[in-house]
Specification:
With about 190 residues, the chain is of the alpha+beta class. It contains 5 helices and 10 strands.
Length: about 190
């Protein structure tokens, strides 16, 4: 199927302002509007844990924690909506618009049914934008895939963490997150 039209971020902003997508989860990637998958129980649990850990870890550290809010990647005609983003608070206060790639300290996507998309297209997008620290919480495989060293051909460094291993963000290496915290125990009752 052919693309009918490629949109600009300004076009996207005008469409959003009309309310046509109210109540729907959409993302604007490379000039196209994509509907996002519904959020499941495992996804919600991981985002809740990431939120709590993030706020506790960077309280009073000059970092704004944003949950499921947009980033502006103008050079790529994209407005992704990551599950968690750590933003430099000073840079954000100087801006009257969405945070830009240079303001980002950490981006985390939680993937249940969207693992391929988050490890593929989203990883390429964030690498091209220069996001230095991009994590994918892979719910089905109960792991965190950490992408670093962004470049035009993708990320130069990929590491996987699982089980009792911990991961730390580049911007706060003294802070760590136990990967197992993100996943419900396998014997826990379903919600």
């Amino acid at each position: 199927m052919a693309t009918v039209a490629r949109l600009s971020i300004d076009d996207y902003n005008r469409i959003i302002e009309t309310g046509v997508f109210d109540g729907r989860r959409v993302e604007f990637i490379e000039g196209r509007i994509y509907e996002m998958a519904p959020i499941g129980d495992d996804h919600e649990h991981a985002v809740d844990e990431l939120t709590e850990w993030s706020v506790f870890s960077v309280a009073k550290a000059g970092v704004r924690v944003r949950i499921q809010e947009t980033l502006g990647l103008a050079m790529l005609e994209s407005v992704p909506q990551p599950d968690v983003a750590w933003i430099d608070r000073e840079a954000l206060q100087r801006r009257r618009s969405r945070p830009q790639a240079e303001d980002v300290l950490l981006v985390v996507e939680v993937a249940d049914s969207s693992v391929g998309y988050d490890l593929g297209k989203k990883a390429s997008l964030y690498a091209a934008a220069g996001i230095r620290d991009y994590w994918v919480v892979d719910c089905p495989k109960r792991r965190v895939v950490v992408h670093r060293e962004p470049g035009s051909s993708g990320f130069g460094s990929l590491q996987e963490f699982s089980g009792s291993e911990s991961v730390s963000p580049l911007c706060r290496p003294e802070v760590s997150l136990a990967v197992e915290r993100l996943f419900r125990p396998t014997d826990a009752p379903a919600g």
